[in-house]
Amino acid sequence: MYKILHLLSYDAVQLLVWLPRVVHALLAALADIKLYSLVQRLENPDVTKWTYFCQLCSWFTWYCCTRTLTNTMETVLTTMALHYYPLPGSKTYSSSKYLTLVALAILVRPTALIVWLPLLGWHFWQEGDKLKLLTHHAFPIGVLTLGTSTLIDCMLYGQWTLVQLNFLKFNVLHNVAEFYGSHPWHWYLTQGFAVVLGPHLPFLFHGCTLTPKRYRILLVTVVWTIMVYSLLAHKEFRFIYPVVPLCMVFCGFSLASLKAWRKPAACALMVLNLIPALYTGLVHQRGTLDVMSNLRQLCASTDPHPDVLFLMPCHSTPYYSHIHCPIKMRFLQCPPDLTGNKDYMDEAELFFANPQGWLTATYTKPASLPSHLVFFDVLENEIFKFLESNRYRRNTEVFHTHVPEGRVGRRIFIYERRL
Q1: How far is CA 37 from its chain centroid?
Q2: Are 102 and 120 in contact (CB under 8 A)?
Q3: I need a labelling partner for 245 at 20 to 30 A (CA). Which of 101, 128, 218, 399 fits?
Q4: What is the Cα–Cα distance from 341 to 339, expressed in whole angstroms?
Q5: Are 202 and 255 in contact (CB under 8 A)?
Q6: pTM, rounded to two decimals
Q7: Are 268 and 199 a contacting pair, CB within 8 Å?
């Protein structure tokens, strides 16, 4: 996408920021339509309509579907693959189409295999001609997609590289992801799943008692996915995003069965989802995006040449995609340790252990000082002496969140050095 804009000389920063979001929105819309089409061919119009309504109401889908995350693409491909999956009675069943989409989902994010393992196993168990399924569909599609991916990776890395294997080694076998935070094993059961589904949760439980047996494999898939992800130390809400469309099928059955209470329940569901969707999408933690708009104005500066240092937890803000000009920028690094050193501390941890000392030791000469510092308000008092002694003055203040926590403050400050 970026390369096409570059070749057409349309790589303006606003297009770089917004075009990927628009494309993700269109893909998410296509996935929603595929979910509607699947249920339409399996159930009566009432169930179809309310399943679609539940999917469109999901606050977490609103929050995630336009974000350029591999989890978003994994969810889109999973939902589209489900449209061609051989559920009993399905009229859109196609082994080659659904397996191709599953293969693409696994290439994008290998953990998609977790979601699809029970579905693939159930299909193989139910399939009459298992040999044909393997030789005519599974193996050719697997070899073609994995082979193409590996060929591209080898060309770009310049050496033999199997990215999917590296992903599994890094995140699962060596559990390096735990370096970025860990939660107790029950986190998805007690918090994560409830937050992701939000107001849909009671409808899911009710719908599980009403849906026909042919949908049981979808429920097994949801339970299996939650349990497997619970075994991994590093947990995030977005990891279980791919099971949300599966849950909406059960929610649709629940709403369709309510009869007299249907409209009040639907209104409550929409309002209770709309509030967190709008708040998390437009207000909560918006400062790290807004601050990049302020920094973008430095592109016109030449005297002195801008030099921006982000004193924030690493990866807090976007980077050059939201600036798109060659100003000098730097953020605190946090690469995981791959040597097994138990005393390892990344640059961000070293900084936050002693912010004033780190800055003094790093910038011993006035000429090396950055022209701009970007940090959360909670850090201001800790580095006040450094700011004063080096003539930094606050010139911008950006709102970030109503719920500050730890190193993440309510506001973001931009300090500029006065010469």
Answers
A1: 26
A2: yes
A3: 128
A4: 6
A5: no
A6: 0.91
A7: yes
pLDDT tens, per residue, the chain with 419 residues: 889 999 999 989 999 999 999 999 999 999 999 999 999 999 999 999 999 999 999 999 999 999 999 999 999 999 999 999 999 888 888 999 999 999 999 999 998 999 999 999 999 998 888 999 999 999 999 999 999 999 999 999 999 988 888 888 887 777 777 777 888 999 999 999 999 999 999 999 999 999 999 999 999 999 999 999 999 888 999 999 999 999 999 999 999 999 889 999 999 999 999 999 999 999 999 999 999 999 999 998 877 789 999 999 988 999 999 999 999 999 999 888 877 777 888 999 999 999 999 999 999 998 899 999 999 999 999 999 999 999 999 999 999 999 999 999 999 999 999 88
Report the DSSP beta bridge partners of residue 331. 310
Among the listed residues 363, 369, 371, 368, the one whose alpha carbon sits nearest the alpha carbon of residue 393: 371
> What is the four-CA torsion angle of 210, 214, 216, 218, rounded to 10 degrees?
-110
